[in-house]
């Protein structure tokens, strides 16, 4: 009998990630959004492309997305509305192994959190991993 962690299988054939989106719209844009939602996106069920801030958050990348919740509209002021919803997007970008190695070798250690992997210590925080 084998021991250890159970083998995990991927749940999907392609990677899917989830996030929330918020649109700040005026009354005319809200009407246009609702028309697209109903007539072009099959009440928000169909996949479409949208630019999302990926990687460092400064670069907008065209992603294939779809809504996984109904949208919520909130009146802000005079003619301004805030529309929020949850979306899923396919194949989120991942740093290449080469870029990851470069980042690890060129970063300064952050000793708060240490993970030992393959006999080597990896220092990390929420922003990056460093190799020591």
Shape type: elongated
Count of helices? 2
Termini separation: 37 Å
The low-confidence runs, each spanning 5 or more residues with pLDDT under 50, are 110-118, 123-132
- Largest sheet report: 5 strands, antiparallel
Total domain count: 2
Report the sheet-strand fraction: 35-45%
Strand tally: 8
Helix content: 10-25%
Q: Radius of gyration from the CA trace?
A: 21 Å
Multimer state: single chain
Which H/E pattern describes the elements? EHEEEEHEEE
| Backbone structural class | alpha+beta
pLDDT average, as an integer? 75
Task: Fill in the keyword field for this structure.
132 residues; alpha+beta; 2 domains; five-stranded antiparallel β-sheet; three-stranded antiparallel β-sheet; 2 helices; 8 strands; disordered C terminus
Give a summary of the structure in a few sentences.
With 132 residues, the protein is α+β, with helices and mostly antiparallel strands.
Description:
The chain is α+β, with helices and mostly antiparallel strands and 132 residues long. It has two domains: 16-90, no CATH class; 97-131, no CATH class. The chain has two helices and eight strands, in the order βαββββαβββ. It has helices spanning 27-40, 97-106, and strands at residues 16-26, 48-54, 59-67, 72-77, 80-90, 114-117, 120-124, 129-131. The strands form two sheets. Strands 1, 2, 3, 4 and 5 form a five-stranded antiparallel beta sheet that branches. Strands 6-7-8 form a three-stranded antiparallel beta sheet. A hairpin with a 2-residue loop joins strand 6 and strand 7 (120-124). It is elongated, with a radius of gyration of 21 Å. The two termini are 37 Å apart. The model is unreliable at 110-118 and 123-132 (pLDDT under 50).
